Amino acid sequence: MSVNLDQELMRAHLDLFRAMKHEMKPSSSITNLTLVQLNALIFLGDRRDAHVSDVANYFGIAIPTATVLLDRLTSLGLVQRVPDKTDRRVIGVVLTKKGEKLLSKAMKERENMFKKVFAKLSTKDKNDFLRIMRHIAQN
């Protein structure tokens, strides 16, 4: 029985993420963060003016769930809440120096992981893969 192309793509996708997850385990043990917590730090590192609702929207989660996520990162000393300068009802969320340092370390680890995962690909294959991923993400 032949497998159709969609099923092959699905299996290849799962295999790719399995390989990447395997390579990421050492990185997560260095930071002691979950993947969601690390992604929250990345999001906050990219946006200097984030609010709890921005985090919730980015992850597609409810605001109370985002609050719990940020509470955990706050208790670890990685983020802090700051009052909005124009609206006292709004609370911003920013990385602390400790959060910035940990994020920098984690990003270096993540870059090494990606290099390792994609080391077997030629430059052309990497460029093709990048083009395809961007095309999928934009549509």
TrEMBL record:
Organism domain of life: Bacteria
All copies of domain HTH marR-type, residue ranges: 6-138
UniProt keyword terms in alphabetical order: DNA-binding, Transcription, Transcription regulation
Keyword Transcription: yes
Any one Gene Ontology molecular-function term assigned to this protein's record: DNA-binding transcription factor activity
UniProt xrefs under Pfam families: MarR_2
Alphabetical list of InterPro entries matching this protein: HTH_MarR-typ, WH-like_DNA-bd_sf, WH_DNA-bd_sf
UniProt entry tagged with the keyword Transmembrane: no
Listed PANTHER family: TRANSCRIPTIONAL REGULATOR, MARR, TRANSCRIPTIONAL REPRESSOR OF EMRAB OPERON
Record's protein name: HTH marR-type domain-containing protein
Source organism of the structure: Candidatus Roizmanbacteria bacterium RIFCSPLOWO2_01_FULL_40_42
